[in-house]
Amino acid sequence: MPDLKRSRQGSRTSPIQNSDMSSKDRYILLSTILLPQNERTINKNLINSMLDIQSPVFCKNREIAKSCTTPFNVLYDNHAKFWQQSGEWEYYLTGDAYGLLKAAIAAKEEKFETKPEDDNLEELENADVSFGAEYKNFVKMSAPEKVEHIEKNKDRLNKLIAAKIKDPEIVTEALIDTTNDAALINHAALVEAMRLGDDEAKKLTQDLVSSTHDMIKSSTSLISQDIFNDKMMFKLVNSSNGTIVQHMTRVYLSGIIFLEYYNNLVSTSSIIQKLRVSFAQKYRTFYQNLLPHINPSDIDLEQVFFGGMRAVTPDLLSKWAIGFLLHDIGKASAVQYHEGEAKYNRSIVIEHVKQGYKSLTTKTSYPMEASLITGYHHEYYGNSDGYGYFRAYLQQYKKSNPNAKQDYCITYDLEPMMDYTALAYFPAKVLEIIDVYDSVTDPHRVYRKAMLPEEALTMMREQFIEKHHKIDAILFDIFAMYIQEKEKLKKAAG
Question: pLDDT tens digit string along 266-281?
Fold first, then answer.
């Protein structure tokens, strides 16, 4: 499987028997199904059916005689036309699976292509209720006008960086304004893109993706100049009017600031060594529950973090920042539940993750890192209260590979997520913590009283770590250090 699975000792792949591949009754080349020789167009109904039921694809490597079975969704999300790529990998569907897919298409011909997208589009178009009157102005803009607005905001940030402006009021106002606009413009562009085919949509959003990425680089650079700016964070909280775009703005900025704190801590202190020393007594039981197949004495910090705990590179940080900014872009009018007093509706809540992930993956060219953050930021280590695509992919993978185990908890990189070596993606686990903390401390939410910082940290530790294994214990402790340090600075400043 190109760029998705490593060849290593103990790999879950196995040698292919030539007799398996020669039987047309058992295996059918995927390219001949999706784009038959006598047809000029791709069979989109079949693709949608395969995505819907997470159809297993048999992958064969001609050069090294290895094979594996992987859900169509995983391959498709990484590259929509993977089955057309030339290389050492070939992709097959079993005859039985193909028969089931054809039957599904015949029974529900209109289900996969038209109705879901129309329903999602209507939901997105109603978003101005929760996104505010300002959103309507961005909806009316043409695609070039949207890009031009993002470019102006980028220039505004770059001028502050060049002038080395430190005034917290000026910096805060610029960061909030530019982030807010980027979230609204990207949502408006996504509504338009949903009406188009995937290739046409990606072409429409190409310049916007590039401009937003550049603006985010400027934003992260400006934030890193003063990550302990308490006045800025205070204004961020009090700028909230309860709408989802304000939550997206706060989470984006808070996420970058926290990662800057994390990088500084990991790079300049002895935190990693301290975690190693205290691991057995303080953390091993927590991670033993997540990795029950591993001998407890073998579970250490390196078993938790694939490749070891490390700082985040600037390039990776900018990709993750996109995911932080757009993590709730799939929310629309249904978000009224979160901002109002409507009764909890789990199906509505789950849908925003699916919609956001699918739209970013199929309708834009944003990096896969951003899409995974959008789709995986409510996974909660597989807890029943969580939701997202990863657990569905993992379940399908385990059906095809019943002896497969996840040997690590967190990965900084994409590949261990794609081949199911790790349980969770580092930036998604960070976002889970920040997302919950922001929700419970927001003073403008009308459906519950806002918690004070210490109350929020206590509740999260009890409900999300001790009682349920949802957020990550080590990352939460670092986040708690960050919040407590900021509270000390606030008190010292009077």
Answer: 999 999 999 999 999 9
pLDDT in tens, 47-80: 777 876 677 888 888 777 778 888 787 787 777 7
Residue 38 pLDDT: 56
Tell me the CA end-to-end span of the chain in Å, nearest whole number. 58
Spatial separation of the C-alpha atoms in residues 461 and 328, rounded to whole Å: 24
Q: Which residues sit opposite 474 in a β-bridge?
A: none
Count of beta carbons in the 10 Å neighbourhood of residue 320: 28
Give residue limits of the domains in the chain: 18-113, 128-492
Q: Which of 118-122, 175-179, 317-321 has the highest mean pLDDT?
A: 317-321
pTM, rounded to two decimals: 0.73
* Contact predicate 42/83, CB 8 Å: no
Residue position matching structure tokens 């202190």? 269
Neighbours of 46 (CB within 10 A): 21
DSSP state of 471: S
Burial 350-370 (b: 16+ CB within 10 A, else e): ebbbbbbbbbbbbbbebbbbb
DSSP helix/strand/coil, 241 = coil
By three-state DSSP, how is residue 70 classified?
A: strand
Cα separation, 315 vs 319, in Å, equals 7
Question: Please, where are the H alpha helices in 269-345?
Answer: 271-282, 284-290, 301-304, 314-326, 336-339
The answer to whether the CB of 33 falls within 8 A of the CB of 103 is no
At 157, is the secondary structure helix, strand, or coil? helix
List of residues 6+ apart from 179 with CB closer than 8 A: 219, 248, 249, 252, 253, 325
How many helices, marked H, and strands, marked E, lie in the chain? 25, 6
Distances in Å between the Cα of 309 and the Cα atoms of 130, 263, 282, 299, 492 are 39, 11, 17, 14, 32
Using a 10 angstrom Cβ sphere, with 0-12 exposed, 13-18 middle and 19 or more buried, the burial of residue 430 is: buried
